[in-house]
């Protein structure tokens, strides 16, 4: 009898609404799976239309074009003799469902709607879809005419069922269902399902990958079985980077691991596994077998097809492997770099421009671009024709081959140091040296003339000339003068992004990169519409602490010695006058809190969901060795005042790579008011009462 089943899963770099490109990548994955002997192929969640369609799911066009792609898949010889499991939205009885469509040899076997929808953090599936709430129930789905003409079927099963092939039984989960406390694989496994599949649209968050891997392995550790997970990869049109990590697990151990970060648009994992290993593993788990005898059975769709061959005794099977996780510094180096590459090639721009100040944040952004250049050269060296074609189009040279990251960086990356009378020679030198070491095209300019012109207009109109605090001006005057410098830098950044290549006799324009970190955004320590305003920001979801560690990683791995002095220098905006030629302004003094404290505030506010009073109660214990309750109260009050005063800045925050679970991104992740009563009278009174009691 057949024992060894060969299955395939994949990570695809799909793009929302790119139906032609998505279809081509699906076909490629099927071709690779078949060439490696697979009899079943699993793809990512909603792979036909792309996961990130958002409100386009409401449009009938999205449904129509998804069925048109399905028609192409069904009628193609490439999909013959392999069970194909693809994801798309389906309208059933006027209700939209997030579905798996499973087909074989021009026949749809089952349409399986998602049962548990992701609706937290960046996910809003309940906005567009309805969960299937009829457990173990199947209905008739009437196929559109274009599909009927291909399959010869008028109706197909729609609902919560499993597939029974000649040699085994398969059951599907979709993304969130793995994370749910009552995951379907539990009951399916008790009912004899041996192969579980999961099509995901799971995005990268720092330090998250191990959680997903642990969930997959634990799914079969207690119950036995084979678990196959597919995931989207890349930037499909917004702030998220889907980080692949396709995997296959059996009986609690990983047997195949896909990459978390790569520039390959199509990655396919194939594994051959022995079903008897599942059966023998389950045989001695008496608690499982007792529960199985009482389980309610799933409807079974019989499939006249086998995933194994009759004579497979000599077929080699896969052995367990040790999963290798990236360090957080490697994740920062690779994830945002891949996201930038997707954004660059899909926006059809000619490169990036970064205002490089010589500080940690802009230097970290520059290092991420340099890492991207490394990834491009490595992919081309490994024979990736897609990356080579994209690189040639970006640099406008059909014969170009990117081999040296510094040389490629020179072509696609422009850095610009924008000096003022308040800038020190140290930051200028640091920016110049880093630009030389990564190879960027570097520009030095001075903004004093523009600043004087803008302030001069104000003086002519009002008859008043504002002054910095050190020159006798008020804090209002000083802040306004600092903001003028910051905003002029933003205007110049966009001017140079549009016309630098024109001035150099080259085609195209540049994307402006921002470099505000997640902690500065949370505190609002940035000028609205300054250089934090850009096209995209690769570090906007990363903490200052992680960025410092990342800079150290780049120093060691890329041999960028310029980063030593950047790391040792205190962070500063350099917007106030120098004192004896030296910087007198520092970020942490300006903010009234340290970056380490900000990270703690951010995690308590967002992850622990703490308001002012709850945050105070938690911190008096966390900080009991270093602060009195009254000092803690003062710190908490100061944070919430500053956070609420500046929350309006989040409404115009540059789209940033999502990497941190306490991001204050107002677009979709962190939904809060932006006009607060900043006195927090009731909340602060509760804190004061507790302080007095203590």
Structure description:
The chain is an alpha/beta fold and 694 residues long. The chain is built from 24 helices and 20 strands. Helix 2 runs parallel beside helix 4 (145-151). The longest helix is centred in the last third of the chain and has 29 residues, at 475-503. It is globular and about 90 Å long.
Précis, in short:
One of its GO terms (biological process) is 'de novo' NAD+ biosynthetic process from L-tryptophan. Residues 5-275 form the CN hydrolase domain. This protein has 694 residues and is an alpha/beta fold.
Q: Regions with pLDDT < 50 over 5+ consecutive residues?
A: none
* N/C terminus separation: 74 Å
Strand content: 15-25%
Helical segment count? 24
Shape descriptor reads globular
Per CATH, which architecture of the largest domain? 4-Layer Sandwich
Radius of gyration: 28 Å
According to CATH, the fold-level topology of the largest domain is Nitrilase/N-carbamoyl-D-aminoacid amidohydrolase
